[in-house]
Write a structure and sequence with these properties.
264 residues; alpha/beta; binds ligand 4HQ; 9 strands; 9 helices; 36% helix
Length: 264
């Protein structure tokens, strides 16, 4: 997968190459990340990437011209393809709270592209005409306000990279943890058996693999019911999980805490 990034802070985005799974994926040539600085594409007043908004109001807006020029230069270079062959499709994404929420399902879909171009805005945002002319899709990382699209861009690149074959090494099948089954993950424990008075749940020490599997599935349901009931409404559950969910709901109605901490 080839990622292109349009940004005023390329050194921030290049940190993806300094450690972790993205650095390893670059070294293995599973991904490449090529940044262009929007400031290098200004035409009129040298190096001016922002202007005051028409209609007044606080803050500045990024001009369409350098964004369009940077995006088109990147798209042209990326369309050449890794092998120099022309015509590869480049999907262009702008990161903004106004976009559709990014999630694991969207990460899976985006992982199918050969080339993704991610555009980072700063200030109050970008001239809407740049979005109209050059952006295929607007994505939001969540309902909060950042100072630029660089951190969302890095999050999107990491989420996609994890899904590429070979990126995680040996444990490729367990890639999506929480969201493959659309439920939250179960709690995890490692040594020691007791830490500051809190004990590891008995069943995890039992060696009974079927019991452990059932307990983990149930605790994943418990957490999801407690923390993200919205996920339960859309989840596809097995018949065992439906029975577990029924039991968890009954316990909660009767004032019994189904969470692992009750054992303590
Ligand atoms: N910003 N998800 C404002 C975000 C954001 C988000 C990026 C701040 C765009 C102009 N992007 N700039 N949340 O807060 O994607």
């Amino acid at each position: 997968m080839r990622f292109g990034v349009i940004t005023l802070f390329p050194e921030l985005v290049q940190a993806l190459g300094t450690g972790g799974i993205t650095a390893r994926a670059m070294a293995r040539e599973l991904i490449s990340v090529s940044c262009r600085n929007t400031r290098d594409f200004t035409e009129d007043r040298p190096s001016s990437v922002d202007e005051r908004p028409y209609g007044g109001g606080p803050g500045m807006v990024m001009s369409a011209q350098p964004l369009c020029a940077a995006t088109r230069a990147a798209r042209e270079a990326m369309a050449e393809g890794a092998d120099g062959a022309a015509g590869a499709a480049v999907h262009t994404v702008y990161l903004t709270p106004q976009g559709r929420r990014f999630d694991q399902a969207r990460a899976r879909e985006l992982a199918q592209h050969d080339a993704l171009l991610l555009v980072c805005g700063r200030y109050e945002g970008v001239d809407e005409r740049f979005i109209a002319s050059d952006v295929d899709e607007e994505l939001s990382l969540g309902d909060f306000v950042l100072s630029g699209g660089e951190l969302p861009t890095m999050a999107v690149i990491e989420a996609i990279t994890r899904l590429l074959p070979g990126a995680l090494g040996h444990e490729d099948s367990a890639v999506e943890d929480s969201f493959s089954g659309a439920l939250l993950d179960c709690p995890h424990f490692t040594r020691p058996e007791e830490f500051e008075g809190r004990k590891v749940p008995e069943v995890l020490l039992s060696g009974d693999h079927a019991a452990i599997r059932d307990w983990r599935a149930e605790q994943a349901l418990v957490r999801t019911v407690e923390r993200r009931p919205d996920l339960i409404r859309n989840a596809v559950l097995t018949s065992v999980q439906r029975e577990q969910l029924e039991r968890v709901r009954q316990q909660r109605e009767q004032g019994v805490n189904p969470n692992w901490e009750r054992e303590q």
